[in-house]
Amino acid sequence: MKLELLAPAGSIAGMKAVIAAGADAVYIGGNRFGARAYAENPGEEALIRAIRYAHLRGVRVYLTVNTLLRDEELSELKDWLDPYVEAGLDAVLVQDFGVLRLLRREFPRLAVHASTQMTVTGPEGAMLLRDLGVSRVVPAREMSLAELKRIRQMSGLEVEAFVHGALCVCFSGQCLFSSLLGGRSGNRGRCAQPCRLPYRFAGERKEGELLSPKDLCALDLLPQMAAAGVVSFKIEGRMKQPAYAAGVTAVYKKYLELLTSGKPYRVDPADRERLYTLFNRGGFTDGYFTRRNGPEMMARKGRELTIAEDQARAALYAAMDEQYVLPEDSLGLMGEARICAGQPAELTLSPAEDRGALTDRGSAVRVTVYGEEVLPARNAPLTEDKIREQLKKTGGSGFAFRGLSILTDGNAFLPAKSLNELRRKGLMAIEEEILRKYPRIFAKEGEVGLGPSAEGACDSQEEPLLSAVCDTLPQALAAAEAGADRVYLDAAAICMKARGCALTEVCGELVRSLGKGRLFIATPLAERAGETEALYDQARELLAEGIGGFLVRSFEAFAHMRRLGLAAFCLADAPVYTWNKEAMAFARELGFAGDVAPYELSKAQLARRMGARDALRGFYEAQIYGRQTLMVTAQCLRKNNAGCTKRPGVETLVDRTGTAFPVRCNCTFCSNIIYNSVPHSLFREIPFFRKLGFSSLRLAFTVESPEEAGRLVRIAADLLRRRPGSAEETAERKAGKSGGREEPVSAYTRGQFSKGVE
């Protein structure tokens, strides 16, 4: 595949502008299911016209269906997609594994691209997606050039990477900041961007945009990206103006053409300045391609444009509007008309430009149509000029003649309406001939199976177990002593303790302390190459030592385990989203023993989701307590603000209102985890979770002391022992108490449990 420039289309006008500026492909959302819910997403009729418009110009169209879907929405997806797929849609971009499962079943020939929202961070995840029918992957934006190359070489998938535009500070798909603080979920395309607000690091008075990266500009790195195997170069910007998207597209088109020309690659400073003027956020960064993280990537503090800068930007936008946005981009045609008495009127058409000018067989597009028989002229015969004038009236058709030759015998007559019909017939024929190379795909042409469901090591229990996921070893020991049936210990804590000795030795010691089958290893929330090889290399030995299994918190980790044949010992944590029954079935078919309910689902949605438990055997867990993860970031707030100490610990981020958010500096895997300011607490809902049939209820301990962890486990254990419907339980519930106690934490949130997200 030749290198592709992929541009954003936040509207039909934006799509036309980036096509005029040189885009090879566009990504666009429909009026539902896309990760930019506030863009000017077109309705069905407009989007079908847009697909045809792009295809006539040789431009591919990728539809964004890259959000998490509820069951009631997923049931409508196939019918919603049908007209676009039948119109020749080139690919669908997805995040939800339930959507992926449905597409492979209903549209097995449709190309599927794995969105960056899937948080693919390595070749194992990419290879598994390839086996599931995905043809392209958009890895996490935190990937280095070396990591992108490894993904491409090992998976064989097409690799698409962002080259310009806004950067999220959190791994895409793993951010719940906007969702948990304001109900606007990034996983639903409604992010309110709290990361762009000012914060201060605890102990400092000065505020800054500590979570706001500069805009990405990888113009200088295009040769290295191509050498790493990137085939699609993606520009961010569906929420920006068409003039911006077109201006950026034009610059990158120039340099992709230079890259493939064989000439020396050198970026003109004037082009870099043009990109800077179009938009920047405190300057530019070339992202993570050549670095792990660093303060130089962050905007830190925004500033107002000077009058001169504002004027320069306005002038550049006006120029982009004039060049790309406002003109009507008609497809040029060359024509030959033959109008001779006694013969059918004849019109031959071919594209005047290279865009869309080849058929699916690789030959040039050329069509000939015939009209009514031409009559001998009684009085004034048709002249060449008169024929040309009538045939060139193509206004509103999307076509315009660049050249039209006329052959007539000087004795021909044909009514104007017949010439109009000949032209209309010709334009329809050339359009259909160009579009023939984009196949119409219809649903239910076959079925792609994902393999039989594997019976997990964890069978459903009559009474829920009590589990605890712990960031530190002292928390884990305290939780186990207090009565937790399972302890999920963060891999970072285990790896830190294992420095200088084998993981099996450390885990064997913990198993002897906690008891066989009680210890589970929680894999990193975001996995990077080289960080966890020892864990996977020794996974079988760890199971032999007596650990119960693995809490898998990324798709990459699960892909590793599946390759090792250990999927049945894996529980999918909440960040491996199973929002709907299709996603739950997907997890079972891949071999997961069970899953943890996603945090963003409401009480009613949890009830509907658990309606699948009779059909899908497995282990189901829900979290009833803990500070939920707001962000997982490759940036280190401590390093960016005070310098790297290489010592793990907890820092504090403070917002404008004085709200403090704990930040765990995970030095083992060089990342930060930002937690909510207060814990999520659903102790009073234990009867509800028990009624739904959850196999386990869990508490998550992040910044809690071991003593606090033990106290909360004992309270939860006491509540679980109380039988629902007993006189004691009924009296306490009516009194608004939990097990004879008030809520066991003084400040807490119920998260999205009551109302869910938009």
Q: How would you sum up this structure, described in words?
A:
With 758 residues, the protein is of the alpha/beta class. It folds into four domains: 288 residues, TIM Barrel; 105 residues, no CATH class; 212 residues, TIM Barrel, CATH 3.20.20.70; 51 residues, no CATH class. It has 25 helices and 32 strands. An eight-stranded parallel β-barrel has the order 1-2-3-4-5-6-7-11, surrounded by six helices. An eight-stranded parallel barrel has the order 20-21-22-23-24-25-26-32, surrounded by six helices. Helix 5 packs parallel to helix 6. The radius of gyration is 30 Å and the shape is elongated.
Set down the secondary structure blueprint.
Blueprint: E1 4-9, H1 12-20, E2 25-29, H2 44-56, E3 60-65, H3 71-86, E4 91-94, H4 97-106, E5 111-114, H5 123-131, E6 136-137, H6 145-155, E7 158-165, H7 177-182, E8 199-201, E9 209-213, E10 215-217, H8 222-227, E11 230-235, H9 242-261, H10 269-278, E12 284-285, E13 298-300, H11 307-325, E14 331-339, E15 344-351, E16 367-373, E17 375-376, H12 384-391, E18 399-408, E19 412-413, H13 416-435, E20 465-470, H14 473-482, E21 486-490, H15 491-497, H16 503-514, E22 519-522, H17 533-537, H18 539-545, E23 549-552, H19 555-563, E24 570-572, H20 581-590, E25 594-596, H21 603-609, E26 619-626, E27 629-633, H22 637-641, E28 649-655, E29 660-666, E30 671-675, E31 680-681, H23 686-692, E32 696-701, H24 706-721, H25 727-734
Helix pairs in contact: 1-2, 1-9, 4-20, 5-6, 5-19, 9-10, 9-11, 14-24
